[in-house]
Amino acid sequence: MASDPTEDLFRTIDARRDELVELTRELIRFPTVNPPGEGYRPCAQYIGERMRSRGFAVDYVHAAGTPGDSERHPRINVIARREGSAPGPCVHFNSHIDVVQSGAGWTMDPFAAVVKDGRVYGRGACDMKGGLAASIIAVEALIDSTAVLPGTLEISGTVDEESGGYGGVHYLAQRGWFSAPRVDHVIIPEPLNVDRVCIGHRGVWWAEIETHGRMAHGSMPFLGDCAVRHMHAVLDRFERDLYPKLAARHTDMPVVPPGARHSTLNINSIHGGQPEIPGYPAPCVPDSCRMVIDRRLLIEESLDGVKGEVLELLDQLVAERAGFRYSIRDIFEVRPTMADRNGPVARSTAAAIRRVIGRAQGQVHAGALGGRRRIQPQRRCPRRRPRPARRRQRARS
Ligand SMILES: [Zn+2]
Predict the structure, then answer these.
(1) What b/e readout covers 100-131, taking b as 16+ CB neighbours within 10 angstroms?
(2) 162 CA distance to ligand 1 centroid (A)?
(3) How close is the Cα of 189 to the center of ligand 1, in Å?
(4) What is the CA(127)–ligand 1 centre distance, in A?
(5) What is the mean pLDDT of each run of 10 residues along the chain (397 residues)?
(6) Active-site residues: which are they?
(7) Hey, which bits of 220-282 come out as E strands?
(8) Taking the model in full, what pTM does it have?
(9) What's the CA-to-centroid distance between 197 and ligand 1, angstroms?
(10) How far, CA to CA in Å, does 337 sit from each of 73, 264, 367?
């Protein structure tokens, strides 16, 4: 009886367990801390040399001029590609090589990659040098266990994921490195539970809304215009006209947790009035109140629609509320995205997980990971509204 090729492959991978641990440790030993983006070049070269020795063509892409790029900390990405012996799709494994700062409280050197009680300890062991090593070992095992490999395999090690991806995935994606006809499928072995196949995420819009007032002494508020009261009007409008709408909007995306399956809006912070000196509360009428909102949007919504909905409420207040002026500034935005849940990658990954650990779930992440786009602060002009004639008349009488 012919042997099952997938079983053969799994056996080949299992036989390389020690090699997988050693590769993970080697990768952790590059202290690719970001910021500032330490050791990117040697880490990329290490991956490139390994893949070249396995017959891959290797490109190093320097994301010149992207945030943080300098002579001392160059943003160097590595992409390795191996064409198969027959035509077929290209499957690309992408991992980021940067790690966040190690921080305090470690009981061992975070870059020594110590193995203790069957675990590898080190910064990036989980996120995501372990994933990178796993994809390299899997791809090498596949090449070694198959006589005819249809299609193309790619492995990339990219930078700056922890700081927005400008010099990494963002830079490469803009230049077509992950697009058809070069690449057909991308798998990112980020750590999101062993039984989870993450196929997308909701979108994000962070913005700062500021209401403007006029300062006066607190004993004579009628001489000023309270920006905090104007912000209260914004919140009141959100409660009345926006929150019920958002709660009623449901997505077809399999987002986890289920509570995140509709549109949400968080008020992250509000700051109003003059800064306080401890023991001396601010005595004036606030001339400014700022609020940061975090709006999570569904794949069924558009960023423009989501922004327009908030602007419409604010513009209504400009038209209806005496003295109401505001400005709004985009801080951060991510478009919602979702791969085909019945596509070949999602289905075969779920099947492989079931085969190895006996269970699998296809899920969309509630937050947004990767693909982030930070926006340069841009202030909209405050919108002024002439006082309505009706009020002016009333004030005179
Ligand atoms: Zn990560």
Answers:
(1) eeeeeeeeeebbebeeeeeebbbbbbebbbbb
(2) 7
(3) 9
(4) 5
(5) 77 95 98 97 98 98 97 98 94 98 95 97 97 97 89 98 94 96 95 86 95 97 98 98 97 87 95 90 95 96 97 98 98 91 90 82 53 36 37 32
(6) 98, 161
(7) 255-256, 264-272
(8) 0.79
(9) 15
(10) 31, 16, 11
